[in-house]
Amino acid sequence: MLKPEDNELLTRVGPATAMGDLLRRFWLPALLEEEVHEKDGAPVRLRLLGEDLVAFRDTDGKLGILDAYCAHRRAHLYFGRNEECGIRCVYHGWKYDVSGRCVDMPSEPADSDFKDKVRTKSYPVETRGGVVWIYMGPAELEADLPDFEWARMPSSRCEITKRVQQCNWAQAVEGGIDSSHISYLHRNLRDLEPATSGTGHRSYTSRDRSPVFTVKETDYGLLIGARRNATEESFYWRITQFLVPFWTMIPPILREDVKDSAEDTYAGHAWVPIDDENTWTWSFNCNPHRDFDEKEKALFHPRTGMWGPIDDSYQPRWNKDNDYGLDRDLQNNVNYTGIKGIPNQDAAVQESMGPIADRSRETLGSSDKAIIAYRKLLLEMARALKSGQEPEAPSDASRYNVRSASVLLKKDVAFDDGAARLLSPRNDD
Ligand code: FES
Ligand SMILES: [Fe+2]
């Protein structure tokens, strides 16, 4: 449970809010590169942290993300002409380059130098891993992009996609952190009959549906271990990271008859606020050891695979307007929710809380330990920033070089020690 004022602090991300200021210290995924791949192509509208922006790739291939509204009289630059190394507002022809400089002002007298005094807001942009990243914070604090392993992988080993979610970012992050819901929300009914024998993820999670959480604070955020009983001597650990400010990792599904997920594909999300009531849900799958096979390519397909289906505007086919495709027959006979697809099940419950969940009316249990730790961390960081203390994590990009893991460990082994070799790509060297 949170006090109403803490819920406000956690969830409000617009300009000049404490959490908005904190999020502006980090690089954010803004667009997929495919959205702005064409030189002089159509400008793209986007909204992040409550700010309306416009993105374009200029004649030289440089990317710009500017304030969406023209510095003159605020017409939206989405309607602009992307031509000859700049975007030109169609209202009176003012033109801006990727750095936000006004480079032409045909509505003013030819001998006027007024254009040299005009700039519009532009944000630093980088591309990596098929993603266009944006930095919206103070220029003097701009750091390197977070060094995620998946972003260094070729597309044969990593797929990334995104979809819109109609709720506040924090309740979406909390869904990403919460490893206990997999035994319910994402279950098929046949798996609800406890398996009496067998190995692997399905057997262990069906036999033990009350994971015990251990949460450790780290220099990137939180390392979260969810422990289930597996055998007489061992626990099944699903180990995920929460990386500030909004990244959550998903561990691989432990296959039958193996002890750890060292060779397997891991996944994760970024929950990037569009504004207080809407979020971009980014999802990636990565196997650093080998190329995806045909089955995985279909499973991780950005539009039709496991994080979809989505349309050309990255809107989910199953959404709030159609009750996420809820089918009561399916719910009675096939799966727990009657909704098909993991992201649709997640979106249904996360959006069902309302645009901004009222955390002053919730009742938390022991399985919510990681969520409590996440809120505490973010609230502390936002308060610290308000009193002048900058967050440390963005200054060291290498902190983000982590993997999630699933592993069987002897009961007396600490999960972070036992899984250390699985949790960092550095250990492959
Ligand atoms: S409003 Fe853009 S040029 Fe006038
Ligand atoms: Fe989920």
Task: Give a description of the structure.
By secondary structure, this protein is of the alpha+beta class. The chain is built from 9 helices and 19 strands. Strands 12, 13, 14, 15, 16, 17, 18 and 19 form an 8-stranded antiparallel beta sheet that branches. Strands 2-3-4-9 form a 4-stranded antiparallel beta sheet, with no helix packed on it. The protein has a 4-stranded antiparallel beta sheet with strand order 5-6-7-8, with no helix packed on it. The chain is elongated. The model has no long low-confidence stretch (mean pLDDT 95). The structure holds FE2/S2 (inorganic) cluster and fe (ii) ion. Fe (ii) ion (FE2) binds next to helix 7.
Q: What global shape is seen?
A: elongated
Strand content: 15-25%
Bound molecules: FE2/S2 (inorganic) cluster, fe (ii) ion
Please tell me the overall pLDDT.
Answer: 95
Number of helices: 9
Secondary structure tally: strands:
19
| Structural class by SSE content | alpha+beta
Which segments are poorly predicted (pLDDT under 50) over 5 or more consecutive residues?
A: none
Distance separating the two termini = 44 Å
The major pleated sheet works out as: 8 strands, antiparallel
Helix content: 10-25%
Secondary-structure element order, N to C: HHEEEEEEEEEEEEHHEEEEEEHHHHEH
Task: Report the radius of gyration as a whole number of Å.
Answer: 23 Å
Question: Which short descriptors sum up this protein?
Answer:
19 strands, binds fe (ii) ion, eight-stranded antiparallel β-sheet, four-stranded antiparallel β-sheet, binds FE2/S2 (inorganic) cluster, 429 residues, single chain, alpha+beta
